[in-house]
Amino acid sequence: MSDPTEPLSSLGPLSTATDLPSPDSPAAAGPPAPAGVPGAHPGGADSATGPGHRRVELRVHGVSGGQAEELLDVEPAMRVGGDRLAGFFRWRRGADTETVPGVRREIFAWGNLTSGSASRAFWLLLLPFMLVNVAYWMRPGRATRNLRGAARVADNVYGAGMRLLALSLTVLITVAAAGIGVDLLGWQCAAGLSEECVRARPWLSFWASPDSVLSATGPALAVGSLVPLAVVAVLWRLSRRTAADYEVVSTSAPPVYDPKAPLSHPDLWRNSEIMARLRSAHIAVSLGVLSLLVAVPALLYDTAGGPARPWGAALVGALGAVSLVSAASALVPGVDPRWNARADRLCRLLRDTTLALLAATAVYVLWPRPGWVAQGRLPGHASVLNALFTVQVALVLLTLAAAVVLYASARAHRGAAMRGMAGPATAALGALTGGAFSAAAVYQGAQWLSGCRALSTPGADCLPLETPTVYSWLQLAIALEAVLAVAVAAVLAVRLRRGTRAHLAAVTEDYERSVRDRRTWDIAKARALGRMTEVLPGVLVALLVPAVALGALVLYSVLTGHLTPNGPEPAAAAVADRTRVLAQGAVSVLIGAGSLLGGAALVALVWIGRSAYRDRPTRQAVGALWDVGTFWPRVAHPLAPPSYAERAVPQLVARVARMTREGTAVVLSGHSQGSVLAAATVWQLPDDCLGRVALITHGSPLDRLYARYFPAFFGPEPFADLHGRVAGWRNLWRTTDAIAGPVRMRSGPGTAPGPGTEPGPGTAPGAETAVEPRTAVVEPERPLPDPRSYDALPGEARRPEILGHSYYTGDPAYSQALRRMLTELEKAYQGP
After folding, report:
1. How far apart are the C-alpha atoms of 60 and 58, rounded to whole Å?
2. CA distance readout (Å), 275 to 247, 278, 333, 629, 637
3. Bridge partners of 81?
4. What is the model's pLDDT at position 745?
5. Are 671 and 59 in contact (CB under 8 A)?
6. DSSP codes, 394-451
7. Contact at 8 Å (CB) between 263 and 713?
8. Is the Cβ–Cβ distance between 182 and 378 less than 8 Å?
9. Would 54 disulfide with which of 111, 664, 700, 766, CB 3.0-4.6 Å?
10. Closest by alpha carbon to 380, among 183, 525, 526?
């Protein structure tokens, strides 16, 4: 693989504009309009205009999306000069809508699967669920090997640990909602401080007034439980609705499955049955924990001198047993359809049983108990949180150990990020994010309900509401996370400056211009920005420092017995006897700041989500990571945002299969995330369609992101398999592109070497390659020049802009790649 910074001499001199197309050609018009300008048509005969076959260029767009007319480039006017702010236009001719003459263009527009309705912005609040679901797919090792012994055990432990961690996040969100509705509103405000609560919040008089029937302890808890019930119901409804919207029918012809290419598995994008039973398990456990939070205070009162009700203990025991069995049912692998169907029936039975027990809990709590008075915090609430965080720390450590074993025994390719530890790191970040969201929601709810300011102490003018002490540590972690984010930004700025200086020599050599010119510095900075993706593992490690500190606190508390039923001691009190008062005050300020930052983060996520689905630049900024997360099926967390690939890939497969069977030569062209969908489509094509499709990827994250962070599913061996399924493959990328890069593929015994490899010493011409596995690079090995010209083009007053990740289809190299792929398809249809 070549160095992205080496000279681009093979592409010709870049310092003059005389080697570029004329001003009247679309490619010379500078950066294309938002619709995209077709590539230049070089002179000479069309090398791919052989008779007998219809030809289609099927484009799959990336995360930025767009309207169908815009993506097809069929708008009546086209820009021939200037830029997006001020340009020259003319009426579009028929030939202008074709990249290569005579080749029909189609667009697969999938943007509405992840955008469209502004209400989908609230999916960002499900970010913790998405992170753990993605971490499930980030397991190290290779899925191309039949795992045995310790590796097989580690693989099963990794998957089970991720599913249990996902389940714990659902419970965590439910417990946080119960902390607001059951504890703060029901137990402490309505039942415990009814008169003060009505004075502070008069609108709660219908519930908290001493004269109200609902202010009794039992009814107050029952009414407060409606808040977490609403949260669970919304998650349940959202998951069921999206599952129905994204469901597709199964095709009659299955793909050709090869263990070297896990994405060719015929059941990969058919996840509805597994997700349905996981959803039932999550709902059952959430409702079971909620019922326990409501029933335990009543049971404690009954056993402490209240009227004896033996069936209360039986109810709590049944709730605990059903919740444990429901949690265990989430671990059932979905391999055998018959076994999966039985597991689905069991999970639905457990869910319905939990609903019946929830109704029994309501009757049990509403039973009159004269003299039952609420005091302090809700009994059992802090204990559930303690157990929950302890389990999460244990699960993260368990998956980390499993990842270490997997990486050592089923070694991933050398490009795997963080030596295969990216999965557990992402899961830990998801758990930390879920805890931060929960703490922020409960803290902000307590502050708003009490009327206290963030940094003040409860007094006569505000309610003395209490929250679990473990949340104070999470608020401290939020504040520390903000400090680390500022520090990381400063380090990245320094790294960018150094990277810019490092690229100056290559830019001056490529364009033959002075280093003193501002344009040279701009290009060098763009190249440095394009290489910044490589620092993502370091950024992830830095952001995990608060999670490591919290995990150490939990382990210390467990080992030393300081983890009391009421939780660890408050963060500010923990330093009182160990440091000076100044340090204690600083910790208190950080906790208050963390509370404000956590609440602001929740609001900011909703705002960013709404902006991303209404404003294209914002969507491009956040779309890359978000669409990587929602690409994968919901195998670990059924309540995460839906996978658009479960709908997009089968649709693409059905369309491409039909065209190839009708004798149409198809060039599948994918940009950015669309290239991942295109690759997944090729892997799912049936046998009679293989070799009759060509592939062009541009701005593709296949190797740079997916192969590094999902090494079990992408990498040199799967890419070699992908290359063997198509008539040809061209990959276009730029050094200034922060997402794209060259695609490495591996050739070995019995496998034709990929482009760029040479036969081993002593190999006869035409003989089968029988060498040790090695890495090749899909052509072109060198990046595309960006910008194409240093100076302004003839007839233009501005220099061409640096395109980075955008507008690959307007580059002359794209039309050249399309012509070459059409030639390869003609050879495939004509046969040897």
Report:
1. 7
2. 12, 5, 11, 17, 8
3. 88
4. 83
5. yes
6. HHHHHHHHHHHHHHHHSPPPTT-GGGGTHHHHHHHHHHHHHHHHHHHHHHHHHHHHHT
7. yes
8. yes
9. 664
10. 183
Q: Which two tokens stand for residue 693?
A: 């499709």
Q: Which residues, 6 or more positions from 576, have their beta carbon under 8 angstroms from its beta carbon?
A: 584
Query: What amino acid occupies position 82?
Result: G
Cα 818 to chain center, whole Å? 31
Instruction: Report pTM.
Output: 0.83
Q: DSSP H helical segments within 255-309, as ranges?
A: 272-303
Q: What is the DSSP letter of 113?
A: G
| Distance from C-alpha of 92 to C-alpha of 69, rounded to nearest angstrom | 14
Integer CA distances (angstroms), 348 to 228, 273, 277, in order: 21, 12, 7
Name the least confident of 191-200, 217-226, 360-369: 191-200
C-alpha dihedral sign at 620, 621, 622, 625: positive
User: Tokens for 58?
Assistant: 């099927």
SS3 call for 667: strand
Q: Which of 96, 226, 150, 121 is nearest to 604 (CA)?
A: 121
Tokens 């753990």 correspond to what residue? Answer: 132
Q: In terms of Cα–Cα distance, which of 213, 231, 225, 224 is closest to 186?
A: 224
Instruction: Return the axis-axis angle of helices 381-409 and 422-450, rounded to nearest 10°.
Output: 160
For residue 542, the one-letter residue type is A
Q: Given this model, what pLDDT does residue 335 score?
A: 61
The alpha carbon of 536 is separated from its chain's Cα centroid by a whole number of angstroms, namely 14
DSSP conformation letters of 54-89: EEEEEEE--TT---HHHHHT--SEEEEEE-SSSEEE
Q: Are 733 and 702 within 8 A, CB to CB?
A: no
Indicate the SS3 state at residue 375.
coil
Q: How far apart are CA 185 and CA 538, in angstroms?
A: 42
Secondary element (H or E) of residue 153? helix 149-178
Q: How far apart are CA 190 and CA 184, in angstroms?
A: 8
H helices of 304-410, in order, are 310-329, 337-366, 381-409
Tokens of 344: 């689905």
Q: What are phi and psi of 731, to 5 degrees?
A: -125, 125
Bond before 307 cis per omega within 30 degrees = no
Query: How far is residue 807 CA from its own chain's centroid?
Result: 24
Could you read off the pLDDT of 2-45 as tens digits, one per residue? 333 333 333 333 433 333 333 333 333 333 433 333 333 333 33
* C-alpha dihedral sign at 577, 579, 581, 586: negative
Token digits for 752? 């034709």
> What DSSP character marks residue 795?
T
Residue type at 50 in one-letter notation: G
Task: Give one DSSP letter per residue of 205-236, joined into a string.
Answer: HHHHSTTSGGGSHHHHHHHHTHHHHHHHHHHH
CA pair distance 557, 535, nearest whole angstrom: 34
CA distance 188 to 449: 11
Nearest to 166 by CA among 257, 340, 282: 282
Task: Report the Cα–Cα distance between both ends of the chain, in Å, rounded.
Answer: 31
**How many other CB atoms are found less than 10 A from the CB of residue 782?**
19
Tell me phi and psi for residue 493, to 5 degrees.
-65, -40
Residue owning tokens 């830990």:
428
Cα–Cα distance measured from residue 68 to residue 110, given in angstroms and rounded to the nearest whole number: 10
Other CB atoms within 10 Å distance of the CB of residue 750: 8
Rounded CA separation 192/814 (Å): 70
772 closest CA partner among 760, 782, 762, 780:
760
> Alpha-carbon distance 357 to 315, whole Å?
7
Inter-residue contact 755 to 824 (CB < 8 Å): no
The length of the chain is 832
> Coil, helix or strand for 669?
strand
Kindly state the tokens that stand for 296: 């335990």
CA angle in degrees (0–180, nearest 5) for 193-195-201 = 90
